Structure formats: structure tokens, C-alpha cells
Amino acid sequence: MADFQFKIHFLDKKTKARVGEIKTAHGVIKTPAFIPVGTKASVKSLTNAQLAEIGVQCFFVNTYHLYLQPGEEVVNKLGGLQQFIDWEKPLMTDSGGFQVFSQARNNKFGGYGVRVGEEETLCRIDEEGVTFKSFKDGSVHRFTPEKSMEIQQKLGADIILAFDECTYYPATEEYAKRAMERTHRWALRCLTRMSNVKCQMSNLKKQRPQALYGVVQGSVFKGLRKESAKFTGNLPFEGLAIGGVSVGESKKEMINVLDWVIPLLPKEKPRHLLGVGEIDDIFALVERGVDTFDCVMPTRLGRMGQVLKMSNDKCQMTNVKWTMDITKAIYKDDRRPVDKGCQCYTCRNFSRAYLNHLFRSQELLAYTLASYHNLWFLERLLEEIRESIPAGKFLELKQRWLK
Amino acid sequence: MADFQFKIHFLDKKTKARVGEIKTAHGVIKTPAFIPVGTKASVKSLTNAQLAEIGVQCFFVNTYHLYLQPGEEVVNKLGGLQQFIDWEKPLMTDSGGFQVFSQARNNKFGGYGVRVGEEETLCRIDEEGVTFKSFKDGSVHRFTPEKSMEIQQKLGADIILAFDECTYYPATEEYAKRAMERTHRWALRCLTRMSNVKCQMSNLKKQRPQALYGVVQGSVFKGLRKESAKFTGNLPFEGLAIGGVSVGESKKEMINVLDWVIPLLPKEKPRHLLGVGEIDDIFALVERGVDTFDCVMPTRLGRMGQVLKMSNDKCQMTNVKWTMDITKAIYKDDRRPVDKGCQCYTCRNFSRAYLNHLFRSQELLAYTLASYHNLWFLERLLEEIRESIPAGKFLELKQRWLK
Q1: Where do the domains of chain A lie, and which CATH numbers do they carry?
Q2: What are the residues whose beta carbons fall under 8 Å from the beta carbon of A367, sequence distance 6 or more?
Q3: Which tens digit of pLDDT belongs to each residue from A219-271?
Q4: Residue A368 and residue B44: Cβ atoms within 8 Å?
Q5: Pairing label, strands B292-295, B33-36
Q6: pTM of the model
Q7: Which residue from B69, B361, B369 is facing A361, i.e. has the nearest CB?
Q8: Which of A372, B151, B392, B403 is least enclosed by beta carbons within 10 angstroms?
Q9: Taking Cα atoms as reference points, which of B361, B190, B92, B276 lies closest to residue A44?
Q10: Looking at the partner chain, which of B41, B353, B364 has a beta carbon nearest the beta carbon of A357?
Q11: What was the ipTM of the complex prediction?
């Protein structure tokens, strides 16, 4: 793993926040970093040129979706994800597990592997792996830890994730324990599979190695989370991800999980939080020592006409902090940019009135301009956070944003 | 109209093709020029920065759509179209007439002003103007020549069009004559209204004048077309548009119309053809002396996954000349760019396989990349055409493209 390194440059004195960089074969990710999601190998509505302007350092692609379309073989044949999507910077893939399980959770009959009359939920789990039906056409597929490694290897992202069982919420402690233990056994199988791969690769010198992150599970149960943190943290993963914290639990529960888990993780390895990224979350997770985190929030909100702003802006019309609903009639003839202090392409060039018009006209450009702004907004916030920590001003910055 | 000038730089010796430039207050349009359509004040899926990269010189906005949303008052309050959409180059609006009539034509009961039981067609025409129902909410509106001028004045494009009756196809000669005569009377009312406006403006020195183009109608009838060309060509319009040639008639009929009309139009004024722009059409209309033309084709085809290519490419899979259906399974793992000779952002960076994947995944980026390529392709073709004429090679170029 010579290509993969994590360096901590600075530790905050008052919190567990830290500044560092993850070095990959495709370049560096300055941490703490927000990792936007490009589910199907595209950060929705934006070109790579726009992502580069925004300053996106890395993005997150979903293995489940790429497995179904176009298939990992196609991506591999085209030279791997980076070549396929013409993105020369780092990329991250998940294991496919979250989607496999969230598909089942969203099924009207809920639960796992339960048969109700003629109906069957979309996935069935056993010790070996998970059988699931495609959300696209109902065709039957099977993921195992080894299969997830194989797919992610063919996709070729710089950072990949161990195949875990993402526990649904709320789950009983008994179920969460069984799922966690299975996740731990699967973690070992992923490591075995990847160490075989690395062994082969170093012989063949054929392909760039990938950094494998383990995933901590355990639902909202303190004992389980601690057990999972210790177990997973002791395995020879290159980094650690914390899973199962964006599945419906409260923000308080998420913070509890971080407080239990992070002190037990090895300090020298990077920590990724899966699926979290609202403004207040960002401060909470950075404060607790999370290095990277991915979330669909800025692009999904953008496509809904929700543009990000500092919460103390007087023009804010929604109850949700830090967003402004640009589709509201009040902006129909508002000549101001979304955010007058913002230097993004959208704010430098367009009025709220034009964005309002584009959303009301359902013009595709609306989604591009709003997503651009939202990502820019978050990237600038993360820059500020990265600067605030060595300056000893992280808590001051947090207070300014969360007041 | 000091701001508006048309200069002819070169006349082809073998055809009626001509090279020139239209000077407007917002810059120059080199002719012959393709004018992309941005119906609702956005060329679909593309930012202005991308349009500028592509080399778009001017685009076409539909008055009918902007009147309904956000309303001309809003655009005017924001400083006019150019400011509203942050486009510093020339813009053109139509009169609203085409949409008013095409809405009625597309109504299941067809015809104009006909009441069938409780149902009513979407527009009713009288000498004064047209009453129509919004395609959005059924609300009732009325356009007159004066109202169209007023709206277009408030929108503020550099080139605007007289309010005409766009004859449906097929129409009887009797109906086409009545409609043409009404269009002629309306042309005079538009000129009257605009000369009053210009008079006021030159006193107030308040607003930039706009160039008004008259519209030649007469359906597919030689006598009517010639009469309309003579009548409209003799009025003090700044330019002439040819209407009613993209309403369902054949390409042969369109060419007939050009052959009848253009020789009767004043040579010194620019000529615009409304709603035409397929590759073979482009050569036909340039050859006959058309200077500018607008069409939704490249962007609409792009959004459908139809990308433009030279017709002699061996990979072309469709029967339609000059397009390739990038959504077809054959491109699933095709690592080549859409067009290997093309220098556009899409072709420089992405494979057919990635475009295929984006379309199959219904990713918004698909529409952006395909529209970008298609507009780039047409802009380069028009550049080639503009160069070929002074070089005496226009017919040679045509032959190469149409073989």
C-alpha cells in the first residue's frame, strides 16, 4: 500500500478535530473532507470540469448501481472508474451492502428474508452473503464479501469498503448483535480476499492496489458499537468507516455512536463516516475526529431548489437551517445572487429571480446551477474548517455557524 | 438603428450563398449562423459558460413561454433578457405567434376558433389579435401585434419578430391567403408600434433600439409566397424572416418556398429562416441565401441520445443521416469518443461507453454532454461553411457532406 498514506498534520487542542491528508495513487485528499456522491458514476448534473472548479477532491460511487449498470466488467474493460468517467483524482466506492439492505428496508413488507404470502422482500441474508432482487427489473443477484471485493477491484477506486450488513433501524439489540458479528466475519473474508489479490498483484505488478476500509456497525447500542470499534479497529484495514448512522436514527444517537466508537479506533488511520453531511453534522463529526464523510445532501437539495446559505441570512424563508427554497414566489423578481458573499459560478452570474424562473420552468440548468452552488458552499466550509483547526479557531467557527 | 447593421462580405459565385455579419448592440453575429433555441431563456442543459466555449453567437428565446413564466415585467425589472440570463451576446425573440397557433394545431379538435360541443380549441383568431389558453393552466390570454411588440420590447432582445399568423399545414389556398393578408396588416401595425417606440426612445434616450424583422408567410402556395415576399420585403423592417416552413411540409416544399421568396427579398437585409436546421437543410438554405436560422434540433436530439456525426462514419447505426443513437447496446463498451476528430469537451474526455451508461442511467449529465457535442458539431460546420464561401469551395463542401 505504498500508494496509500494518511498523515495527520495537526490535532486540535480543545477537541478531537484533526487536519491531515490522505495520499492516494490519484492524488491527495486534504482532510477533513466532504466527499460528494456520484451514485451512478456521475455527480448529478455536473461535469467533471465543474467539479474541478468547485474544488471537489474525491467522490463516492455506489458499487450496487454500477454492478447493475453498466456492470463492473464494462468499467474494467474501459480501464477502471477513473478512466471511465475521466476523473483523475481519488475515488471511493462502497461495498454495495447499504443499497442491498436499504432496498429491502424500503420494501413494503420490511425485514430481511421474510416471506409474506406470495410476496418476498428484496433481499435474503445468510452466512455466506446476500441474495437480492434488482430494484430495476427484479432479476436475482447475489453479493458475498468476496464478490463485493471482486466488483470493487474491477471498478478500481482508490478507497474501497468491506462488505458489511447495514443494520436497519430500529433493530433489536439481539438482531444488531447477530448482524454485527456477521459483519465482523465478513470483514475477515474481505481482508483475506484482498490480501490474496495484493499478493497476486505484487507478483504481476499489474494493477494499482486499493485501500480497504473496514466498517464499524452495532446500531445504536453502546456495547455493540464499542465491540465493533475494537474488533474492526484492530484488523489490518487501511482506514475505518462508521456505518449504520444514516438509517433513521436521531442526530443525538449518531453523536453517541461517534463518542463511543472513535476513541477506540486507531489514531493513525483515516476515519470515514458513511452518509452524513448536514451543516450541523459536519461540525459534530469533525469535532469528534472524523476525517472524511460522504452525503448526497448538497446535490439532492440542489435538485429540489434548496440552496445552502449561512443560517443568519435574513432572506431565509424555510424552517430548515442553512437552506433557502429558491422556488418560492418571493424570489420571482429578486435581483440578488443566492448568497452575495459567494464566489461560485452561480452566485457570480445569476440572480435569485433567474434561478426561481429556471426551477419553475423545470429547466435542466436549474439543477446544475443549484448543485454547483451547494457543492461550492460545502467545499468552502470545509476549507474554512481545515484552516480553523491549526489556527486554534475551530470552536469559534463552529459557534459562528451554529448560533 | 445605429446599433444594428448588416454587412455582406462575400457573395458566392456559383450559388446565392453569402458571408457577412450582423452587428448588434451586444456584438456581432457572423453569418451564415445557426441560432440555437433557448425556449425558456436557457439552452437546455447548458450553462452560458459552456455556450461560450462552444462558440454560440446568439440564441433564440420564445416570447410565448417567457410571457407565461416569469412574465415580461419580471425580465424587464431585472434589466432585460441579457441581464436576466447573464448573456452578453446577441439574442433574438420570436413574436409568440408560432406557439399560440401551434398549441391550437396540436389540440385534438384542430383548426382555429372552432367550438365542438363543450370543447374549445386553444386559440381563437380575429382581426385584432388572438385569444388563447395557456398550455400550462388553461388561463385565457390575448396577443395582438401591439401586445407582442410590447412584450418583446420589455424582454429586450436585439432582434425581434413581427407578430404573424403561422399558417397550419396543410391549409387551403383560400385560408392561407386570408392568413397572409392578416399577417401583412399585422406587420404594418408592428412597424407603427415600433416606430412610435423608437421615436419615444430617441427622445428619452432611455433604451437601446431593437431590430424588427418582418415575417413572410403564404404556406406552400407560390403566388402567395411571392406576394408576401414582395409586400414584406418592401416594408421598412431591419431584416426578413421566413415563417411557416417547419410546420409539417416536406423538405422539397421548404426548398420551393426559399426559391420563390428569397429572390424577391431586398439583398441588403439579413434573412432568417424560422425553425429549420437539419444538416441537409443547412446546405440548402445557405445555398439559397439564408443568413441565419434557428432550430431546437441539436439540443432536442442530444437529450434523446442522438449525437451528430459525419454521415460516412462506419459506426453509424441509425437510418437517420448524421446521427448516431448512443443509447444502443452496441456502444456499451465502446472506448472511442463519439467522433474521433471532434475537439469538443465531450469527445475530448469521454467514451461512447460512458455516454451510453449515462443515458441508460438517466443521468442529467447525459443531456449536457450530448447537447454540448451537438451544438459544437453544428458550430464547427457553420464555421466551415463561412470559410468555404470566400474560398469558392461551398459546393465542394456541400458535396462532401451530402454524399
Answers
A1: 32-293 (3.20.20.105), 302-393 (no CATH)
A2: A44, A45, A302, A303, B364
A3: 999 999 999 999 999 999 999 999 988 777 789 999 999 999 999 999 999 99
A4: no
A5: parallel
A6: 0.93
A7: B69
A8: B403
A9: B361
A10: B41
A11: 0.92
